[in-house]
Amino acid sequence: MIQVKNLTYTYPDGTTALRNINMEIGRGERVAVIGPNGAGKSTLFLHLNGILRPSAGEIIIDGEKINYSKSELIRIRQKVGIVFQNPDDQLFSPTVRDDVAFGPMNLGLSEDEVEERVRESLERVGMSGYEERAPHHLSGGEKKRVAIAGILAMKPEIMVLDEPTTGLDPETADEIIEILLELSSEGITVIISSHDVEILSQFAERIFVLNSGELIAEGTAGEIFGEPEIIRKASLRLPRTAELMNRLRMAGFDVDVKLTVEEAYHELLHLLGAEAYHRLLHFLGEKRQHKLMHLLGDEKYHELLHVLRER
After folding, report:
1. pTM (2 decimals)?
2. Is the pLDDT confidence value at 234 over 90?
3. Residue 249 domain-assigned?
4. Contact 127, 172 (CB under 8 A)
């Protein structure tokens, strides 16, 4: 869906922000671009719908090279929607309805079609009923949802979101990611940047790592988070579960890096083995066994004992 070939970009002041970047992203893929501040993530994103023009190299969207003519840019910006890190950079109309309707109206669509797109888009992001609200009176999470709705109203095939969960509380951030996962399941290619490693580990099918304007690594979430040195260069920390598994590997245990609590739980069950099962029962005694059952829940507790017994 996206091909970035030998992309280099130098700002007018002579600062080179990107150096010879090569990437390919498939249709419907969930991709994250990570790296420290100043790595070039935002600059890269602004190339994907023609806001910036490469100093060298080319961008190919759905098999067609961007040629930067006015008609081509209109077509590309229908296909590739960008949600900026700060939604206040994107929301400028007096009402939510006007903001979401802005893009479709500029496509020359009928009033009925524009209204239908506004209704559908706000419904998709859980903002129905906010049509007459002023965007600058909304919370950060609500503004982010409206910004996403404004892009959805253009019916894009690719969505690019720069730090979509920055400044949001954990519950709201999870809700935004759920929206993006749903869009991906419908075939929309979703590309994000983020410093939230817990979200990255659960969202991204593939991760590209930028540092000082260069692409230094790419791979699955498991591959990237299984290499602590790469994460250090990206100025991130490991997800808690990956950090635990990496420490166990460094201590000589034969474990795979896991990114979710559920996966790590089952890996630890596999690691403990039969000896630990008997030691656990001996150590706990009857009263502590009941306390452990209460802590884990009946199903998890018996699953733990079953797996240990089998080992």
Report:
1. 0.81
2. no
3. no
4. no
